[in-house]
């Protein structure tokens, strides 16, 4: 907004532009779901289900767009700029790459990472007949398989999937609101995505018993091509502005166990003149006092 | 932990007014949003729809000020002044914007400031920039006695200039004869010793520049005076010959 050569003439336009400009605390990332020139039924169904999962923060493009993201990224960047989306999911189908999904993210409206996944098996939301979570539920993400930590491409895929399915950042969580679980397993070169609904059942103690019921889309994916960002571009995108660091309070430190320690700085104290709690039993009797005074005339002794 | 969507916002440089206000210590006065309108006897906005001073477009009276021309149209004057104010405001806003934009990508002017340690080439560049920064781009600047007579080309040597076809017959003849002579002679056109020496000198200059970048002003003249005899001494002369022979062998076989 500050660098606009044409100032917005209405308040609504101003709000629109303010929403899109770079900020300290960013908005929730939006995802755009695009169909390629030859998207088949499976791929369309996948896109529709992911749209249902990501509902308020996703944009579904209705028409087919004949582009090839791995060759030419300009049209994706144009869409991203127009709809202010930094995540995208592009679905297409070829004889060479059947049931193809390209999942990717953008930095500053330019493509950062892109990973091509092939869908081998897909079970849609409507195929599993049970009650579903409400729309816009923030999911819990579980990643199983040590490949996700070891292999560089799988690590980026994990980061991409977290970015994609994270939803809005919240300051606090309510136990009853944790309803949706997305479970990603990487084994034998394949990635299995399953979604479960969390049922909190009564149990003897305060912590409820958890039951997972399968619902939602389940995908069997295989990783095909990747287009990962170079290291310096990735580092640039990870750069956090200084204003986001929490302000350090002086003289307060935190333990690994969660204990908070504080330091108080005192001046040197005269321990003889210290004001302690008065214990009546330790009070000086008048007889003792006179003995201390060294024979000075004692006053009338008071009865204890 | 996760990459950002957009780069973090850059703090924009202060505008001309903001700089002045900071200098003078002027602070923003908080203004109330509603003002009491005496005529309408109610609280009205300070500006905007139904503002406190009445609708300016329906003002039916415009007093002629004391020293003004009685024939002048006051309404036209008011309209003209408003247009000028709006235009000046817009101009200043665009200027501030351009200044902010320029501040981000400005070429630093550090090389132009005199330090004690600039070498001949740097001083030549500085002198050229100083000459060109006049209103007529240095065309009428008097030249120093030892400076080059002809001004350097404005395009920096990019445009090619050709001789006229039928100009100097004698020059053309001598040029053609020289060409034939060079083609016929057995001696190679590229003098390898000179090429190698030039390359070595260039490398040494680069190394010296890199060192100068690291260890600055302390050395200065003293450093340069000490370096010179080292460079053109016997040792480096001896060093040049075996390398030159190796290069000649390489040039001969390759």
From TrEMBL, chain A:
Residue segments, region Disordered: 268-304
The answer to keyword Nucleus applying to this record is: yes
- What UniProt keywords apply to this chain's record, in alphabetical order? Nucleus
- What Pfam families would the database entry show? Brix (PF04427)
Where the record annotates domain Brix, the positions are 29-232
Q: Which InterPro entries match?
A: Brix, Rpf2
One biological process term from GO is: maturation of LSU-rRNA from tricistronic rRNA transcript (SSU-rRNA, 5.8S rRNA, LSU-rRNA)
- Write out the annotated subcellular location: Nucleus, Nucleolus
The terms under GO molecular function for this entry are:
rRNA binding
An example Gene Ontology cellular component term from the record? nucleolus
Residue ranges under compositional bias (Basic residues)? Answer: 275-284
Family statement: Belongs to the RPF2 family.
- What PANTHER family does this protein's entry cite? BRIX DOMAIN CONTAINING PROTEIN (PTHR12728), RIBOSOME PRODUCTION FACTOR 2 HOMOLOG (PTHR12728:SF0)
Question: What is the protein named?
Answer: Ribosome production factor 2 homolog
Q: Which organism is it from?
A: Prunella himalayana
Automatic annotation (TrEMBL), chain B:
Q: For this chain's UniProt record, which GO biological process terms are given? A: ribosome biogenesis
Could you tell me where the Low complexity compositional bias lies? 239-248
GO annotation, cellular component aspect: nucleus
Where, subcellularly, is it found? Nucleus
Residues of the region (Disordered) are 100-122, 134-169, 202-254
InterPro entries linked to this entry: Ribosom_reg
Where is this chain compositionally biased, Basic residues type?
A: 212-238
Keywords, A to Z, come to: Nucleus, Ribosome biogenesis
This protein's source sits in the domain of life called: Eukaryota
Q: Its function?
A: Involved in ribosomal large subunit assembly.
Tell me the protein family, please: Belongs to the RRS1 family.
Name assigned to this protein: Ribosome biogenesis regulatory protein
């Amino acid at each position: 907004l500050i660098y606009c050569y044409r100032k917005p003439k209405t308040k609504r336009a101003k709000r629109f532009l303010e929403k899109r400009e770079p900020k300290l605390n960013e908005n929730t990332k939006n995802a755009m779901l695009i169909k390629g020139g030859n998207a088949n039924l499976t791929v369309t169904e996948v896109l529709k289900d992911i749209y249902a999962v990501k509902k308020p923060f996703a944009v579904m493009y209705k028409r087919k767009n004949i582009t090839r993201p791995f060759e030419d990224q300009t049209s994706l960047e144009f869409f991203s700029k127009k709809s202010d989306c930094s995540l995208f999911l592009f679905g297409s189908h070829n004889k060479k790459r059947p049931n193809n999904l390209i999942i990717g993210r953008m930095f500053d409206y330019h493509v950062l990472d892109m990973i091509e996944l092939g869908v081998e098996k897909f079970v849609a939301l409507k195929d599993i007949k049970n009650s579903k979570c409400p729309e816009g539920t923030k999911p819990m993400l579980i990643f199983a398989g040590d490949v996700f930590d070891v292999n560089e491409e799988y690590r980026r895929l994990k980061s991409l999937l977290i970015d994609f399915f994270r939803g809005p950042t919240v300051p606090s969580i309510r136990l009853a609101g944790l309803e949706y679980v997305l479970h990603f397993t990487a084994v034998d070169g394949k990635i299995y995505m399953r979604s479960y609904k969390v049922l909190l059942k009564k149990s003897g103690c305060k912590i409820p018993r958890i039951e997972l019921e399968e619902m939602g889309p389940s995908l069997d994916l295989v990783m095909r091509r990747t287009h990962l960002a170079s290291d310096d571009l990735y580092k640039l995108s990870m750069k956090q502005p200084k204003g986001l660091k929490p302000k350090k309070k002086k003289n307060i430190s935190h333990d690994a166990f969660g204990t908070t320690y504080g330091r108080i700085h005192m001046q040197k104290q005269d321990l003889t003149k210290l004001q302690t709690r008065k214990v009546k039993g330790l009070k000086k009797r008048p007889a003792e006092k006179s003995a201390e005074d060294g024979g000075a005339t004692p006053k009338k002794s008071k009865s204890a | 932990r996760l990459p950002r969507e957009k780069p973090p916002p850059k703090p924009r440089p202060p505008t001309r007014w903001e700089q002045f206000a900071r200098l003078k210590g002027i602070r923003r006065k908080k203004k109330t949003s509603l003002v009491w309108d005496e005529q309408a006897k109610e609280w009205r906005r300070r500006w905007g729809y139904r503002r406190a001073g009445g609708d300016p477009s329906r003002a039916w009276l415009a007093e002629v000020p004391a020293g003004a021309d009685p024939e002048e149209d006051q309404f036209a004057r008011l309209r003209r002044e408003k247009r000028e104010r709006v235009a000046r405001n817009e101009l200043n806003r665009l200027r501030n914007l351009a200044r902010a934009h320029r501040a981000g990508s400005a070429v630093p002017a550090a090389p132009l400031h005199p330090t004690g340690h600039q070498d001949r080439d740097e001083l030549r560049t500085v002198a050229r920039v100083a000459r060109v920064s006049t209103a007529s781009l240095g065309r009428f600047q008097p030249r120093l006695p030892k400076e080059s007579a002809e001004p350097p080309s404005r395009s920096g040597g990019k445009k090619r200039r050709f001789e006229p076809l039928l100009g100097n017959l004698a020059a053309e003849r001598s040029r053609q004869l020289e060409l034939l002579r060079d083609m016929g002679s057995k001696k190679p056109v590229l003098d390898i010793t000179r090429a190698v020496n030039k390359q070595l000198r260039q490398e040494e200059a680069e190394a010296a520049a890199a060192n100068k970048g690291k260890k600055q002003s302390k050395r200065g003249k003293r450093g340069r005076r000490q370096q010179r005899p080292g460079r053109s001494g016997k040792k480096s002369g001896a060093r040049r010959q075996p390398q030159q022979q190796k290069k000649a062998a390489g040039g001969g076989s390759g």
